[in-house]
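Course assignment 3, question 2. Fill in each field.
Student: A.L.
Task: Predict the tertiary structure for the chain below.
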Amino acid sequence: MVDFITVVYLVYIFISLYFLTLYILIYIPNRKDFFTYPKPEKEYSLDMVIPCYNGSETIEKAVKSILDSDYPGLRKVIVVDDCSTDNSYEVIKSLARNDPRVVAVQTPKNTGRAAGAKNYGAKFSDAEFIGFTDDDSYPNKNAISALMGFFNDEKVGVATPSILVRNDSRTFLEKFQAIEYRVIAFTRKLLGFVDAIYVTPGPLAVYRRTAFDAVSGFDEKNLTEDIEITWHIISKGYTVKMSPVARAYTIAPDKWKVWYRQRIRWNLGGIQTVLKYKKSFLQKGMLGRFIIPFFVSSLLIGVSGIIVLLYRWGRTLITNILSTTYSAQNQAAIITLNDINLHPNVLVFFGILLITVGSLFTLFALRYTKLEEGFKKTNAVSLIGYLFVYLLTQAFLLAGSVYEIIFKKKYSW
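Answer field:
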C-alpha cells in the first residue's frame, strides 16, 4: 500500500510538472508577441502616486525617475508622506518647490500600511488614469509609455511592467532575488496571454480610474494590497496586461531577516486574499476558474514540499543514527555492498525530471529577460545557489506564515 508521504510527493511532482508544461504550452503559440505592446491611440491623462514612509534616502531618486518618463500625458506626481519619523516630508516638499508637477501631501496620521497612503494620495488625482510606484522603485524612462497603449481596450483595468532588482546586487541574497524577479517577470507575461495575471506589484502599476474607483481603491486591511486590488478588479470584469519592455527596478532586501519579514507578509497577504474571495473559487470567470486555483495550488506545492523534505531528511537522519549506533555496539560493518541500492526508483526519476525541467525553464526565462548594458551577468554560482538553496527556502517560509497566523502577529511598513 502506498504510504501518505509518497502520495504527497507524487502530488507535488504532478502539480509542479503541470505548471511547467502549462507555461510551455502558453509560450509556444505566443512567442512572437512576447515583446510587442500597443501604442496609445490618444494622450491619456495620468497622475502618479508615490507613498513614502521613512524613505528620505530613496524618495528623491524615485520621484525623478517618474519625472524623467517620456510619456507626454503625465500631469502630476503626488508624493504622500505617511507621517515619517525621518525628514522624508522635508525632502518631498523640496522636490515640489523645484518642479510644479510634484504635489507634496502628508496623511493626517500614520496609516500603518502603504495602502492607506496610496488611497490618500488618490484623492488628489483627477486624471483618466492613476499610477502607483514605491519610494524605493525606479521605472525606466519608457516604462509608462509601454503600458498606456493597453488601455485602448476598454476592458483593460490595469497594466504592469517587469519588476527587476536594480544593478548593485552585492550579497548572494540580492543575487538570488535578481534571478527570481526575472523568472517571475517571464512567467507573469505568459499568464498575461491567458488573462491570468494575479498581481500588479507596487514598484509600478497603472490603473484605469473608473476601475480603481469601482473597487474603492486599495484594501487597507490587506497585507498585500496589490494582490487584493488585482483580484477585485478582475472580479468586476476587467483584464490585466503586462509589458516586459516596460521595466521598474526595485531595491531587494540585503539581509535575511528583512527578506524573511517581507516574504512572510506576502504569504499572509496572499492567504488573506484567498479567504476574502473563497466564494469565487471554481466559479465563472478567470478569477474563480483559474487564478484562485492556480494561486492555491502554488501554496500547496510549498506545503507539500516541506512535508516531503522534513520527512525524508528526518527519516534518513534517524535511520542512520540508529544503524550506526547498533553497528558500533555489535562491532558490525556500518555499511556493506548490499546496502548500496543501484536499482532505478520511479520517485527518484520524477524528482530528477522535475529538477531538470525546472532548471531548463529557469535558464530559458533568464535568456528571455536580457538585462540592459552595464548589468552584471548571472554567474554559475549564483544560479546553482538559486536553484538548490534559495528555492528550498520558499517551503520554510510557508511554515513561518502558519506560525504568524497562529500567533496573529501584525505587520506594517
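Instructor remarks: Strands lie at 46-52, 74-81, 102-106, 129-132, 137-139, 156-165, 205-208, 239-250. The first helix runs from residue 4 to 30.
Grade: pending
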